[in-house]
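Q: Got a minute? One more chain.
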Amino acid sequence: MTLGIAVLGATGSVGSSVMRVVREHPDRLRVVAMAAYGTNPDKLLREVDALRPQLVGVMDAAAARELAARVPAGVEVVAGEEGLRAVATHPDARRVVAAMVGAAGLRPAWAAVEAGKDLALANKECLVVAGRLLTELAAARGVALLPVDSEHAALHQALRSGRSQEVARLVLTASGGPFWQRDAATFASITPAEALAHPTWKMGAKITVDSATMMNKGLELIEASHLFAMPPERVEVVVHPQSLVHSLVEYCDGSWLAQLSVNDMVFPVQYALSWPERWDNNFPRLAPAELGRLDFHAVDGEKFPTVDLARRALAAGDSAPAVLNGANEVAVEAFLAGRASFPEIAGTVARVLDGHAAQRVGSLDDALAWDDWGRRRAGEALGGS
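A: Always. Here it is, folded:
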């Protein structure tokens, strides 16, 4: 039976991996709808020509008009937030891939869950900004939240080997980014080009900078706590430069289970799309005899305070992770634009959190309002940038 899927973020790095998996399994997967911001219309058009979805959503209205004039007959193009929502709730889509970066991807992902679609989740902000609300909605609708991040997909697989009450802790692995061995005294001189030179993964600019600051691990800690109903004190992070062990689970008897694969996003993407089954494929295989060694190191909290900032936000309450997320996005944008130094990213987030009294969030609008509050406060902290 063919699974109809909708893809939010079809032209990004995760979206490209989704398309590779779809092409690997044309008899099992069909893209019925896809969406993108519209910054790369030529790439989106190539995917539309190849896959012929019924519906294409484009956030940018001008890009949507341009695409509508070029798509094959029978393909409908819709624009704006309503267009993204239409893609996310397409009646023929049984599983939706949420891979649009940033808080803008939260509303269509929410709409998909509300419509009873299983959600393959690659957008970190969904669980960081509205984790409790989204997991409660998924439980109420009886749908699955399936992680696409390699770390959470690894945990999801390792957790299938035991009962939740048997789990002692979850351990997320971090590549460490390009700077984990760099002298902290030189951090103020780090350039955007250096931060974007990730040693093992090819990703978008924002998430690559998050990897360099290790904020991505802080966000993943928040995600893991929500996804797996795990108290934050039982979620840890270690640096694993080879990026081959994607995460580990320790059980109460002292046994550890780890998931390994080539560091390519096609593996967690296929896992999320094939679950609860496993499918064969022709993707590159890991050769254990050629690994040589696997290294693990503690996170240096002095050099990389972002993991502790995220843990602090999670412990504070509902609104604080949303504030953390908004502040971080603005600080990263300022760094990439040359308006802030590398250390100012974490410093700005810390200052914003210091000025926030956490509150319980009652709705998606509330969560997004706190995200916006964090953005505005970060802009003020950076001198209005």
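A: The longest strand covers residues 29-36.
Q: Perfect, thanks.
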